[in-house]
Amino acid sequence: MKFVLLRLVGLAAVLLVASFLVYGLLYLVPGGPMSFLLGNRTGTAEQIAAIRAQYHLADPFVVRYFNWLGDALGGDFGRSLVYRQDVTALLAGRVATTLWLVAYASVLIVVGGLAAGSLAALRGGRTDTLVSGVSSLFLATPVFVIGVVLVIVFARGLGWFPVFGAGEGFFDRVHHLTLPALTLALGSAAYLARITRASVREEMGREHVETARSRGLAESLIVRKHVLRNAAVPVTTVIGLTVAGLLAGAVVVENVFALDGIGSLFVRAIMQRDFAVVQAVVLVLVGAFVVVNLVVDLLYSVLDPRMAR
């Protein structure tokens, strides 16, 4: 419980600092918040005065920050300057698509990366060479290039998957999001496969594994009890960082496949200088990243109880 409480306190501290940076950095751009609120308009003195009064720009910065933070904790991120509606409603209508995409890609990464890396380490030879070659290819290929190739081959060429939209219902969503999820997952799965391969090979050369073999234990039991469990700690770190990073990678994939998620909303908000939406999306992404890392820390304590001391 002490370990969990310390991690929760750290989580709250990180989120507090992150929220301050998210709110404050947009106020440091040339022209400050007024440049976002006015957009491309010049604005009369009366309009500027009305905007300053509406957004409380005359108040001290710290007061404005804590007012915004209090509203954000209550689920109120303000109103979009472009869409003329609550930012929370904008996010709520799009977050499901992003969560589906990230969850689907995470499953592909974990299953594919762990399986390929473990197989390469345990079997070696041509299997190892093949996995290393394919992972190098995917690691060297940009995400948008993978997406374009998948669309050309499997959507336009073979007609197996749709190009646009997120679908409705479980099976329809899986069908629509297969190509986007693969685009998002292949590079990360290749990286995880390499880390898994290296970690498993290192554990196989440990003294306790050789001791287990000398005692006549079955190889399958040695792999499960002594190799994979110990190799899981560094692999878990990579999985946590990879899954957290998918939220940022989803921005590119959502634009390639025209998915209406928070990633595509974020890109449009930056281009349209919709600072309330930018603040909300960045804070959500940072929060998700920190929460995933908290889960990874808790998994450490399960895999190796010594880390919880």
TrEMBL record:
Keyword Transmembrane helix: yes
Family: Belongs to the binding-protein-dependent transport system permease family.
Coiled-coil residue spans: none
Annotated transmembrane regions: 5-29, 99-122, 134-154, 174-193, 231-257, 277-303
SUPFAM superfamilies from the UniProt entry: MetI-like
Keyword Lipid metabolism: no
Localization per record: Cell membrane
Cleavable signal peptide: none
This protein's name: ABC transporter permease
Highest taxon listed in the record's lineage: Bacteria
Any one of the GO CC terms: plasma membrane
Bilayer topology annotation: Multi-pass membrane protein
CDD domains the UniProt entry points to: TM_PBP2
Ranges where the ABC transmembrane type-1 domain occurs: 95-296
PANTHER family: DIPEPTIDE TRANSPORT SYSTEM PERMEASE PROTEIN DPPB-RELATED, PEPTIDE ABC TRANSPORTER PERMEASE PROTEIN
Keywords: Cell membrane, Membrane, Transmembrane, Transmembrane helix, Transport
InterPro entries the record matches: BPD_transp_1_N, MetI-like, MetI-like_sf
GO biological process: one example: transmembrane transport
